[in-house]
Write a structure and sequence with these properties.
The complex is a heterodimer of chains A (262) and B (319). Chain A is an alpha/beta fold and 262 residues long. In chain A, 26% of the residues lie in helices and 29% in strands. In chain B, the strands form four sheets. Chain B has a seven-stranded parallel sheet, with helices on both faces. The N and C termini of chain B lie far apart (47 Å). Classes of the chains: A alpha/beta (262), B alpha/beta (319).
Chain lengths: 262, 319
């Protein structure tokens, strides 16, 4: 079984986001890059599947900047066999990324039996690439997966919807599944894994290698800015039990008469 | 004027309120609405009142259950037979799932989860949060039409006096195409309440809740308010609450009108996910907790003492 996993490299969740002076994107020079957290569940699911299907290969694909290849190295240190990096700027739109991944998979010479991805990247939060890629490759897909079982070519995937309800899907390979937290517990890369990863093949492609150009841009961003700061609120000291009823009463009155939300 | 189609969903005979928010904001454009499956007379009137011109109802038994492929095929076939400049939908579970697939069928661009927009010379100009709301950016779409947009629930707000549309009902047989991923079962969630992303009021608990059992006091407070209960990543990672309840950068981004944070210190990734709430109340024993920098009303005190008093006070007020 040929398994492809889409990974993105994103700023760490603790990053303080600072827009660039011209508002074209955010400052990335001092950002700590990590593998998109949801992609870890996709990599783990691929490795679990490989373990129960000997002879399978796991190829990780990433589209983005090359200053740092942390995400791909992490995936290979976890156990992925090889990696493909499509070199580009870090803020391509979803259409360009999906088209690049499609091109990279086709260029690999392997037929994808299963494509796994994180449900969304925590930088642009678009939640588009997995479904768009599935459409471009004419594959069925399940997004926001919190359950996954494979039996030969048959897949049962569970998708989380509103209110924590679950849709249980039946589908067959080839297909695409986009993974959510809760699907599995991603392993840590072991030291031998990290050493081994250094010798695993990493193929580097350009956007033109995968048939993508500036004409493919569909979404244009500008004016990156911090959200407006709220004026300081009112703070009440209520550690003294005797005063609590009075303070709570005051806050409730403020919610009704000042904030008008209840 | 731009020709616009708005996809709507309904639950329990009511259209989702995000549709009405979108219609209100689109007043002045020519706006049709599309729904898959039967729609109540009440819903049709509500859509008309908010500006819908034609209300297209797509019918096909294959689509009784949601299907990303089926919904995308049915809408794409309908859109091809008509002519629209823009297709809007709510950023709901279904909208987030099948809109990218639908946009892909037209090789068209899509702006996800915008929180505001306007039309200038019939062209869409949107605003959307990135990095879970740590920043905002303006967004435009280019390339083949129609262009696709999903809108975050609760972000636009309901219009005060919308212009009515004619609300002509039009039933159409839908072409669902081939459906390869089929739903065999739907497992109900623990709660029948509104999803966090759609909730108007959220009561959220953090690590200070100490265990899963203690979330009951938040549930009780939420019941009084008609609120949905959420949790911080610390609470979820400690096993006090399921991930479906997580608010923050690796959970759900929410914008209710009232967010009550109980025992949440306010890690940067949590603040990112809830800072667009209209009013924030924080209850925490630590007067220096970062959550207080975002709170409109902060109560320094023990949540286990404050929450029960708050519940009783609200009960009196809201009964």
């Amino acid at each position: 079984m040929n398994i492809f996993v889409c990974v993105k490299q994103v700023p760490d969740t603790e990053t303080k986001v600072i827009p660039t002076g011209d508002g074209s994107y955010i400052e990335t020079s001092s950002v700590k890059w990590i593998m998109n957290p949801y992609d870890e569940f996709a990599v783990e699911q691929a490795l679990l599947l490989k373990a129960s299907n000997p002879g399978s290969t796991v190829t990780v694909v990433r589209v983005g900047g090359v200053k740092d290849t942390e995400a791909l190295r992490t995936a290979m240190a976890m156990g992925a066999d090889e990696a493909i990096l499509v070199e580009s700027i870090d803020n391509l739109d979803s259409y360009m990324i999906a088209k690049s991944i499609k091109g990279a998979i086709e260029k690999s010479g392997k037929t994808a039996d299963l494509i796994l991805a994180g449900k969304q990247a925590i930088d642009d939060d678009c939640l588009q690439v997995p479904q768009l890629l599935a459409q471009m490759l004419d594959l069925p897909s399940v997004s926001i997966a919190v359950g996954f079982e494979a039996n030969g070519n048959d897949i049962v995937a569970k998708r989380e919807i509103e209110g924590g309800a679950i849709e249980v899907y039946n589908l067959s390979t080839p297909c695409l599944v986009a993974c959510n937290k809760g699907l599995n517990t991603p392993r840590y890369a072991s030291l031998p894994g990290i050493m081994k990863a250094k010798r695993k093949p990493l193929t580097q492609l350009s956007l033109s290698d995968v048939g993508v150009s500036d004409d493919d841009r569909r979404v244009v961003y500008s004016d990156f800015q911090l959200p407006p700061e709220k004026p300081a609120g009112k703070k009440f000291e209520a550690t003294d039990e005797a005063k609590q009823p009075e303070i709570v009463k005051e806050v409730v009155q403020l919610l009704r008469n000042e904030a008008k939300v209840i | 004027m731009a020709n616009i189609l708005v996809f709507t969903e309904s639950t329990n005979q009511h259209v989702k309120s995000v549709t009405l928010e979108i219609l209100g904001k689109l007043n002045g454009q020519t706006t049709d609405v599309i729904h898959i499956g039967d729609l109540s007379e009440e819903s049709i009137q509500e859509l008309a009142k908010h500006g819908a011109q034609n209300i297209h109802i797509l019918k096909n038994d294959q689509l009784n259950n949601y299907s990303p492929e089926g919904y995308a095929n049915a809408l794409s076939n309908f859109i091809k037979a008509n002519s629209y400049d823009y297709v809007f939908g709510g950023a709901t579970s279904a909208g987030k799932d099948f809109f990218p697939r639908l946009a892909g069928m037209f090789d068209a661009g899509m702006a996800s989860e915008v929180v505001n927009f306007l039309f200038e010379n019939d062209e869409f100009h949107g605003t959307r949060p990135l990095f879970a709301g740590k920043c905002l950016a303006k967004v435009k779409i280019q390339g083949p039409k129609p262009h696709f947009v999903t809108v975050r629930p609760n972000a636009l707000g309901l219009p005060e006096s919308p212009e009515a549309g004619s609300g002509n009902k039009n039933e159409v047989a839908a072409d669902s195409g081939s459906i390869r991923a089929t739903i065999k079962e739907i497992i109900k969630g623990a709660s029948e309440k509104l999803d966090l992303t759609e909730a108007n009021i959220i009561v959220s608990g953090g690590r200070a809740m100490k265990n899963a059992e203690n979330f009951k006091i938040l549930e009780e407070l939420a019941d009084v308010l008609g609120a949905t209960v959420g949790a911080s990543r610390a609470a979820v990672d400690s096993g006090y609450a399921p991930h479906a309840m997580q608010v923050g950068q690796t959970g759900k981004t929410v914008s209710p009108s009232l967010y009550i944070a109980c025992g949440i210190s306010g890690a940067i990734q949590h603040l990112a996910g809830m800072r667009t709430s209209k009013v924030i109340v924080a209850i925490n024993t630590d007067p220096d907790a970062p959550i207080f920098t975002k709170a409109d009303y902060g109560i320094v005190g023990d949540l286990f003492q404050i929450v029960p008093i708050l519940k009783e006070e609200l009960k009196l007020l809201l009964k």
